[in-house]
Amino acid sequence: MTTSILICDDSALARKQMARALPASLEATVTFAVNGLEALRCLEAQQFNLMFLDLTMPEMDGYQTLEAIQQRGLDIPVIVVSGDIQPQAQARVQALGAKAFLKKPVDKSQLKGHLKAYLATEPPGLDTVIQRVSTPALKRRDIYLEVANVAIGRAADALARHFNVFVNLPLPNVNVFEVSELQMTLRHLASNAQMSGVCQGFSGEGIAGEALVLLSDSSMKDLTAMMNYPVEDEGDCELELLMDVSNLMVGSFLKGLGQQAEVKFLQSHPVLLGQHRPIEEMISLTEGNWRRTMTFEVSYGLEGTQIKCDMLLMFVDESLPLLDNKLSYLMDED
Predict the structure, then answer these.
(1) Which of helix, strand or coil describes residue 213?
(2) Domains of the chain by start residue, with CATH
(3) What's the pLDDT tens digit per position in 107-130?
(4) Do the beta carbons of residue 174 and residue 294 sit within 8 Å?
(5) What backbone torsions phi and psi does residue 143 show, to the nearest 5 degrees?
């Protein structure tokens, strides 16, 4: 008997990985949706045995999709598959009716247990047989977007646990920039506000770059107040907080990236670019260091606050062939 599976994820790589993790013994018919709105149209049009759902998507995210499924009374077991591994994220999707939560990249032994629990027939041979579902060819940017998405989830989880907050996970932005375009991006992130920022170098197996972490003055003030730092030590505490945030965000992102690329990254101590300074001054400090770079751009927000923290990870141009090679297994079409 054919099993009908719906996979909803905006990432082409994630859709491919999820489909090919399914056992051939399921004889699964797989349908893809790129966001929640498209998934709901699929659910209204036909019956599915199981749905795999991402959380961070444009148009309609996973939380909104789960709410809509409940509101419309659609009968479908949903397993969330996400890079957002914050404890609150997992609790929220379960409260919205999700049957289970799998973190990206998917662990096949955990997947086997969930398939056994939520499908009528037990799928044998998951460890030895892979379902080869036809998927469109992947582009280089597809790979980096999904790799960044997983790494961003690790950084958000570290922030959430450290500050006991829920971090709104952003959609990643990956680009190859000339230095002039990079400066424009920094100006856009700053929105002409006074900023505090640090830079932090990193390297591993010939892959090197630099991370910039920026907080606006208003975000820094609110974050300091949220942490209940003494007013009389505000200057020193702000600097300590800025360094802590940088170490957390950069370190956890690099760990998530390194796990996927099988690279152990080492990071230098954060270096202060400036406190309460216009972004133009910080840009001037980085001029001459870059010609062309690939960047991961991330803007995190803390739920219930106006706090926003921006991070740019920039890889030197010479590192890109090495990183491409490390991630080439994700392009495998066998």
Answers:
(1) strand
(2) 3-118 (3.40.50.2300), 140-331 (3.40.1550.10)
(3) 988 998 999 999 865 555 444 444
(4) yes
(5) -65, -50
